[in-house]
Write a structure and sequence with these properties.
This protein is an alpha/beta fold. It has helices at residues 2-26, 73-85, 121-130, 138-144, 151-160, 174-182, 185-212, 244-255, 259-267, 272-277, 289-307, and strands at residues 109-115, 134-137, 217-221, 236-241, 281-284. Strands 2-3-1-4-5 form a five-stranded parallel sheet, with helices on both faces.
């Protein structure tokens, strides 16, 4: 009995050593060459004098690939790890012009923040505010652009008629204006030509306010950052991304829409790829919030170091 147990130990040790050497020799899992077999040994002992023969079953969980043209799993994993390591890391994008080198004596350092619908942009916006950036919310400024007294207000009435004025107040009724412009691409384009410059004028006023109050960083949160070409008016652009399926799920949960309606809304937006092409920093919010936090922390600290005179409050 003792002798059989010793023989069993030797067999198991040999199998384990063999598997280990294959893993080391291939430098990870390579589907095109080395087959990693996860060896399961099933042994039955009976407390009898005449022991049954030792039975070993070897089950290959991962089978070899016959497709020599496919990249190895090692290459895929390396590529995935490399892309993930780039999240929260600054990169130059020569195809997208930015403001000239920052001069602290002229105003705050401007970070443009944008991304697809339900990409987690608001959560990143809050994290930057927490670190001491002055917030500029273009969605809120957009509402102000329709109010009486603005240059956009007068132009909108001239362009679309007095019927867009609310009966209860002098403000423009966006529920009336919406169907007019969204049914005609040319009218929507004209609306944007009127409203977007007004919004950016308000952004500039906010930036001046931040400078007076002693802020060295402003974060400009704008969904239309790229379409309005505002990415050329900031020092760097941060983009938030999430997989399309995750964005659809969030829209359904947040807005109470059907999956089909949510899918239409997300597909009407520029793709993640289009946003990333113009990004200096990419933040993915598809994982747990703590990982988003680490990406923001990494990007913020790099920015503080790169611009030299920005002092992080943390």
């Amino acid at each position: 009995m003792r002798r059989e147990r010793k023989r069993l130990r030797c067999v198991v040790q040999c199998l384990a050593s063999s598997a280990n050497s294959k893993i080391k020799g291939s430098q990870m899992l390579s589907l095109g060459s080395v087959v990693l077999g996860i060896t399961l040994v099933f042994v039955c002992f009976f407390p009898l004098q005449n022991l049954n023969p030792l039975v070993i079953h070897v089950i290959n969980i991962i089978k070899p690939s016959n497709d020599r043209g496919s990249p190895s799993l090692e290459a895929k994993m390396s590529s995935s790890d490399e892309r993930r390591s780039m999240l929260g890391k600054y990169r130059d994008t020569p195809s997208s012009p930015r403001l000239p080198k920052w001069d602290p004596s002229t105003g705050p350092y401007l970070v443009g923040l944008t991304g697809c619908i339900a990409s987690g942009k608001s959560s990143v916006f809050k994290r930057l505010i927490k670190r001491g950036a002055f917030p500029v919310d273009c969605d809120k400024l957009g509402h102000s652009a329709y109010k009486p007294g603005t240059s956009a207000y007068k132009q909108l009435i001239e362009e679309f008629g007095k019927e867009i004025i609310s009966n209860e107040s002098e403000e423009i009724n966006r529920k009336v204006l919406g169907p007019i412009v969204f049914s005609d691409p040319k009218k929507l384009e004209r609306l944007n030509e009127i409203v977007w410059p007004e919004i950016w004028s308000m952004v500039e006023d906010k930036v001046k306010q931040a400078f007076v109050e002693g802020y060295s960083v402003c974060v400009v949160d704008a969904a239309v950052m790229l379409r309005a070409s505002w990415h050329t008016k900031v020092h760097e652009v941060w983009v938030t991304i999430a997989p399309p399926s995750e964005a659809v799920r969030r829209v359904v949960e947040r807005d109470g829409l059907s999956e089909e309606a949510a899918r239409r809304r997300t597909s009407a937006q520029p793709s993640n790829k289009e946003y990333v092409e113009h990004a200096n920093v990419v933040i993915s919010t598809q994982w747990e919030p703590s990982y988003t936090e680490r990406q923001v922390e990494k990007a913020w600290n790099e920015m503080v170091k790169r611009t030299d005179t920005i002092k992080s409050p943390l």
